[in-house]
Amino acid sequence: MSENKSEKMSVANARKAEAIGREVLLQGWVRTRRDSKAGFSFIELNDGSSMGGIQIIADKDLENYESEIKRLTAGCSISVVGLVKESPGKGQATEVQAKSVTLHGTADSETYPLQKKRHSFEFLRTIAHLRPRTNSFGAVARVRNCACRSIHNFFQEEGFLYVHTPIITASDCEGAGEMFQVTTLDLNEVPKVPDTGTVDFSKDFFDRPSYLTVSGQLEGEIYASALGKVYTFGPTFRAENSNTSRHLAEFWMVEPEAAFFDLYDNMDLAERFLKRIFRDAMEQCHEDMEFFNLRIDKTILETLTKIVDSEFVRLPYTEAVEILTGSGRQFEFPVTWGCDLQAEHERFLTEEHFKCPVILYDYPRTIKPFYMRVNDDEKTVRAMDVLVPKVGEIIGGSQREERLDILKSRMAEQNLDTENYWWYIDLRRYGSVPHSGFGLGLERAVQFMTGMTNIRDVIPFPRTPGSADF
Ligand code: ATP
Ligand code: MN
């Protein structure tokens, strides 16, 4: 390339009319190439900056036309220096007349798996190192990025402080026993306590059993009890052996926690929050969202637009049970008051009955964790789940139990050792306040926004039972 450098530009910017007349350097990967009889080639170049690529016109008088340009295939990496011109073609504002095309890496079309045809998502999972080069996965990556930006923007603008809660922890927030253990013990020669024959964790790295976190909530409560409004956003691990299209063993969770916040404040926050990420995706990832609407789910834009402009339904669990039992519907799992709602029940409510997001709240105390605030009826707790069509539960949260004596009795009820939670209990002994929070699974949100049916396709490298490739 010449000394007098051309302006490096992304394909996304070169596609805009403002770029017309500029000499630019574009770098990316060939999607397609076709040759005209008149002796030039059209190359569609994509660099990941946008869904659409840009058309490059390469004339036969370029010095490497026969040797390289005419041999370009899908997946080859190239640099192009050229002039951005107004495109005579429909559906694109610009095209680029190449002054030079430099080949960096070839991609043998005999073996390169991504040829110009539609591949199934199942197949693409087996080539997770190449799938980001497809339209679908490029779009998912950009929408996911946009959601993360919105998450931070939203909470920062609302005055929440970003705190980092630990990934390795000794406490089990959910008490559900779905934790991955972290150890440096040699599993072939596990040290045992002589008398009892149990594992001697004093020989382990942390001197005690430790795990990957299932939630940053308890630590979030510590910071909320000092700084008011905080949120964590990080990886979360659950060893749940459920091979569903909505569960991952490693996922990203956003968890706001706020002091002087009751369940209704929490609902308002959740509703504003979801609307904000949906609206931002439609505004900032317009082309990608159009793609999902065309190829993945023909109703997605309409659904999201409707949600942004309307109010979520708020429904106590008890009324939900009445709706479900009165629906005349045969569910696989029959509904009675006190049972945990299954995905089929949640989906009935949000997809069929209300046809919009539903915030269910005040669940039976027996099916919810110890930290949720007990209501005056003593039968229910201040829990809330936000349900959306197709995905089901997208957010789970609650007002937390701030009363020391009731918290302790709830822990006893659930056979939890209060000694392990001494610091959590301390928060109720010193300056306890009403507080609330929730968790949003990032992948569930991206799933919902894109219409992608399998959660494995909205995270770059999915971890599920029996699978940790790439
Ligand atoms: P579910 O009933 O769907 O398993 P949960 O009740 O275990 O969810 P919470 O413990 O309330 O969920 O977690 C908060 C949020 O984290 C959920 O609303 C969901 O968005 C997300 N989430 C929970 N488990 C997973 C998982 N295994 N994979 C991806 N996201 C998850
Ligand atoms: Mn779960």
How would you summarize what this structure contains?
With 470 residues, the protein is α+β, with helices and mostly antiparallel strands. Helix content is 28%, strand content 24%.
Structure description:
This protein is of the alpha+beta class and 470 residues long. It folds into 2 domains: 7-105, Nucleic acid-binding proteins (OB fold (Dihydrolipoamide Acetyltransferase, E2P)); 133-179 and 214-457, BirA Bifunctional Protein, domain 2, CATH 3.30.930.10. 28% of the residues lie in helices and 24% in strands. It has 12 helices and 17 strands. The protein has helices spanning 11-14, 121-126, 135-157, 217-227, 263-284, 286-295, 300-309, 317-325, 343-353, 404-413, 422-429, 442-450, and strands at residues 7-8, 23-36, 40-46, 54-59, 77-86, 94-105, 161-162, 168-169, 181-182, 210-212, 229-237, 250-259, 313-316, 358-364, 380-388, 392-399, 435-441. The chain has an 8-stranded mixed sheet with strand order 7-11-12-17-16-15-14-13, with helices on both faces. It has a 5-stranded mixed β-barrel with strand order 2-3-4-6-5. A 3-stranded antiparallel sheet has the order 8-10-9, with no helix packed on it. The longest helix has 23 residues, at 135-157. It is elongated and about 85 Å long. The structure holds adenosine-5'-triphosphate and manganese (II) ion. Adenosine-5'-triphosphate (ATP) binds next to strand 12, strand 16, strand 17 and helix 12.
